[in-house]
Design goal:
Structural class: alpha/beta
Oligomer: single chain
Strand content: 25-35%
CATH class of the largest domain: Alpha Beta
Number of domains: 2
Distance between the termini: 30 Å
Strand order of the largest sheet: 5-6-7-3-8-9
Order of helices and strands: EEEHEHEHHHEHEHEEHEHEEHEH
CATH topology of the largest domain: Rossmann fold
Helix content: 25-40%
Length: 306
């Protein structure tokens, strides 16, 4: 591959009856880049990945992967995909499933390498039907890498996994990206996106509402987390917060767009606050601020697309 985008989504719209799942969405991903797609349920994340996988076609706009149409076999051969819902052959053993998938590729990874990379060696002789949900998920993710793909699409890859299994999978995925692979993933685990992605795209109601690095999304509209103790807080002050995180037991936590102005308002309102803490918003908090209220489409002050 040269330096041109390996994934291109150009003004794509996709509807399902009266529901618009994607609305004029554009996205470009460079070779070797890891991009996390965030959004609430029903935002259009899975629809986007299904278009890239060639499982659906857009109503309007174009989708290209590696310069080709993802519905064409030669293009899909360069893709590895783990959809949100997967079904493994219940009677086949894990090693047999790996071999079956490998048989559909010209130069697959050896079975042993796949099993070791995704910590599945101990499960190689187990029937898929006897695996736990988390174990089946690990197998499903591993299968996306069997064909030595250039691009991997992972839709909620660690659903049902415990912490050790999730960390092992992260390590395997990082290795793929470090070797030059391109990754797109959706996840409800925001720490997963922080751990794996260099860039974040936030989707809500079928539209891209923000796009940038993890640091840029975290700093979106300069959202800050403010913690302090106070017996009471005027409603006018909480109304300025993007998200009221908590306000019980005399302890308040809010996400505010301008921490300095908020503290000045506390003083002007003669609020007897104590133990004041101001910190940068986490990616999760920035995400909540972006999707909890109506967002104006345009460009923010810090250059993050919105």
């Amino acid at each position: 591959m040269d330096g041109t985008p390996v994934v291109e989504v150009d003004r794509v719209t996709r509807t399902f009856g009266p529901v618009t799942a994607l609305d004029d969405v554009s996205l470009s991903v460079s070779p070797g880049e890891a991009v996390g797609v965030l959004g609430p349920n029903g935002a259009g994340k899975s629809t986007l990945l299904s278009l890239l996988a060639g499982l659906r076609r857009p109503d309007r706009g174009t989708v290209r992967v590696g310069g080709g149409d993802p519905r064409e076999p030669r293009t899909r051969a360069r893709l590895g995909v783990t959809p949100q819902a997967t079904g493994l052959p219940q009677t086949l053993r894990v090693g047999e499933v790996v071999d079956f998938v490998a048989g559909h590729h010209r130069d697959p990874l050896p079975r042993r390498e796949v099993l070791e990379r995704f910590d599945l060696t101990a499960l190689a002789g187990r029937q898929c039907g006897g695996l736990s949900g988390g174990q089946q998920r690990r197998v499903a993710v591993a299968l996306a890498f069997v064909g030595r793909p250039d691009v991997v699409l992972l839709d909620e890859p660690t659903t049902g996994l415990d912490v050790p299994a999730r960390l092992a999978l992260w390590e395997a995925v990082r290795g793929f990206v470090a070797r030059g692979g391109t990754l797109l993933l959706t996840s409800h685990h925001l720490e997963e996106v922080e751990a794996l992605a260099s860039r974040v795209v936030v989707v809500d109601h079928g539209r891209v509402i923000a796009e940038g690095t993890v640091e840029e999304i975290r700093g979106r509209t300069r959202v800050r987390r403010v913690r302090f103790g106070a017996d009471d807080l005027p409603a006018a002050l909480t109304g300025d917060a993007d998200v009221l995180v908590a306000g019980t037991g005399g302890r308040w936590e809010l996400l505010v767009p301008d921490a300095d102005a908020f503290v000045r308002d506390l003083v002007r309102a003669d609020v007897g606050f104590r133990d004041l803490e101001v910190s940068a918003a986490s990616l999760e908090e920035a995400f909540l601020a972006l999707t909890s209220h109506g967002t104006t489409h345009g460009t923010t002050h810090d250059g993050v697309r919105a």
